[in-house]
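Q: Make up one entry.
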Amino acid sequence: MSDSVKKYFEDNPPTMGHFANNATEIAKIKLKEMMATKKLITDELIEKRLKDRGISMYEQVDNSLEKIKEHYNVEIVDDWNKTPDFSIYPESTADGYEVWVATSGDGRDVCINEDVYYYESDLGDVLYQAITDGYNEMIYVDDIDSQYVEDGIMQAWEDYINDMIQEVEDELIDEGYIKDEEE
């Protein structure tokens, strides 16, 4: 029993009714003591550790694409000089419409009902999956500055940050920190 709880009982000897009425108060004292000695994991502490790694959970950093490439072991290129593991590029239909192909490999084996997209805006999710699935070391995109590339990278960035937050939390727990139960 802690010294403060012992002192409380010395100053306020319990009676049957007295103890029942003060049980909550005693529990609060004990909880305060425990919380004073515990190291809590806070967002501020996590952000400090992330900043030490050159990233932030609140803002995208200048080298976010490089961090994503390193984390997911993927290269995103817009020049066709090697055989990519995944490709995203536009094609024209026989009647002049533009469609988008997103397929494994260099585009030689396209499955029309699985790999062809009518809307470019759908390609961000496709690129995100290609970045994070772990099967693609090189991804070819026809225009590295297009909106779908930015969308896919933003989604991958969010996953990367969540992975880094979890890694920091695990390190802090190993160091004796605890998560705040109110979170």
